[in-house]
Write a structure and sequence with these properties.
Length: about 475
């Protein structure tokens, strides 16, 4: 196989003056030429080479057989040499060789590679617009792809290769295995999705089905749309525009009795969490139904008009809403509504990691525990002010109650009594408080009073002023937390 072209390889190489590779030795003479010799027999295998280089950048756990390969540039030839069997595997005529790469999973770390199934990609510039691509299986010593410009990447499971030919709307795609066998061809990423055991894809008649990782059709191409759900379930739209659920082998799990999500005059609600599927029952109204994988109706149609995932990091909790604007919380793992539709929710992300969520009821602020389904902090606090504070030693809220401000822990324990007109975190681990128009300081860890409320001004950087008669004393806070007055 010979081409007059420019070879581009994909990891920068560094060549030492002397290198060992199994029983072969790589030497460099005073002219900069490389020589490959058998260190046992002293036989010269190649000489006057511009480059003799092992495949660098391989993961530490790469099989020893892969490490036996050498890339040799002699004149315009680039040679892949297997030092174990003392044989050149292929020769490519080129003008320049610089880099080489192994094909790794883009979503994995650099060293999380395929070990014995390692693939190298050689990109060769040609006189044409697009370069030539060669994919080589180092385990089998075979070329598994040879053709025009193509982007190659590993599948998510790292057991197949995705090839992309072309750019944008003109792109075509195929999945091949490590022997070069075509598993599936497809023309659009729109209806393509990689499952754990196969691929959702579209045929030439624009019908969608599933092909497994061996290239066998497991779900026939009879659907308008397939949408992957977790645990092997697939939300499917049939040709009658009804939605249901099938598994990855095509078995119907939930009958096709629900509205598809194609109609523009309704929001797209169809989704699945923990085996709970959210559908519209029909096209005539916006009511929702919650169904599980046993086709059991968990929440009948007409109960909720809106269902939404609270946060994609905490997907087992759903906001649910009835006819008014008030919302509740549904736990998909418990298969039950843990809080009724009596609340308003505005902020929630920071507290979900503690299993908590801020809520508002009848104009008051409170805290709900979404894990236990109980009210963690009762709705006794004003809804116009709440601030969550988190530091290394403590997590608490600054709140307002009956027109006065204070602070409580996440369990409701009072840290700062509700007697202040204002509280604010300031410099040096302190909290500034205001009472009767005067300022003081409280320690932000112990919540003990550092300075009483008798100062006319305390800035965020602890500049302090105090009115005495007709004069204003100015000072600052010392390291031992006493006031140093300026003379």
């Amino acid at each position: 196989m010979k081409y007059k072209l420019l070879l581009i390889l994909l990891i920068t190489l560094k060549v030492s003056v002397s290198q060992e590779n199994s029983k072969f030795k790589i030497l460099q003479n005073s002219k900069g030429e490389f020589v490959l010799t058998n260190s046992e027999t002293q036989k010269v295998i190649y000489k006057k080479c511009a480059l003799i280089q092992p495949i660098l950048g391989l993961p530490p756990n790469t099989h020893e057989s892969v490490k036996n390969y050498l890339f040799i540039q002699k004149g315009k030839d680039l040679i892949l040499f297997n030092s174990e069997i003392e044989k050149s595997i292929f020769t490519i005529e080129c003008e320049y060789s610089k880099k080489i790469s192994a094909l790794y999973n883009n979503e994995s770390s650099y060293y999380d590679s395929l070990v014995e199934k390692l693939i190298i990609k050689i990109e060769i510039s040609t006189k044409n617009k697009y370069p030539k691509i060669i994919l080589f299986n180092l385990k089998t010593s075979k070329i598994i792809y040879e053709g025009s410009d193509v982007r190659a990447e590993l599948s998510k499971a790292s057991d197949l290769i995705k090839l992309t030919d072309g750019v944008g709307s003109t792109s075509s795609y195929r999945i091949i295995d490590f022997n070069g066998k075509v598993i599936v061809n497809y023309t659009s990423n729109k209806d393509f999705y990689e499952l754990s055991n196969g691929y959702i894809t579209r045929d030439a008649n624009y019908r969608v089905g599933v092909v497994n990782r061996q290239g066998v059709v497991t779900v026939p191409f009879i659907y308008k749309k397939l949408k992957h759900a977790v645990n092997g379930y697939i939300i499917a739209d049939n040709i009658e525009d009804r939605a249901g659920v099938i598994n990855s082998n095509g078995k119907i799990i939930i009958p096709f009795e629900y509205r598809t999500e194609h109609r523009n005059y309704y929001p797209h609600y169809i989704f699945s969490i923990d085996g709970v599927f959210v559908f519209h029952k029909n096209f005539e109204d916006g009511n929702l139904v919650l169904v599980d994988t046993n086709n059991t109706i968990l929440v009948p149609t007409g109960t909720y008009i809106d269902v939404a995932i609270i946060d994609y990091d905490y997907t087992s909790y759903l906001f649910v809403q009835q006819e008014n604007e008030l919302k509740g919380i549904y736990n998909t793992k418990l298969r039950k509504e843990v809080f009724p539709c009596e609340y308003l929710f505005y902020r929630h992300n920071k507290l979900l990691k503690f299993g908590l969520i801020e809520a508002y009821k009848n104009g008051k602020w409170g805290l709900l525990n979404i894990n236990t389904g109980v009210i963690q902090i009762p709705f006794d606090y004003q809804s116009n002010y709440s601030q969550f504070i988190e530091n290394d030693s403590l997590k608490y809220f600054q709140l307002m109650k009956d027109g006065k401000m204070g602070a409580i822990t996440l369990t409701g324990k009072e840290l700062i009594p509700f007697i202040y007109e204002n509280i604010k975190s300031v410099d040096k681990g302190l909290i500034r408080v205001k009472s009767n128009g005067l300022y003081g300081l409280i320690d932000a860890i112990t919540f003990e009073i550092v300075l009483p409320c008798e100062y006319s001004r305390i800035s965020e950087y602890l500049d302090i002023e105090k009115i005495e008669g007709s004069s204003i004393k100015k000072g600052s806070l010392s390291q031992d937390r006493t006031v140093i007055w300026k003379k």
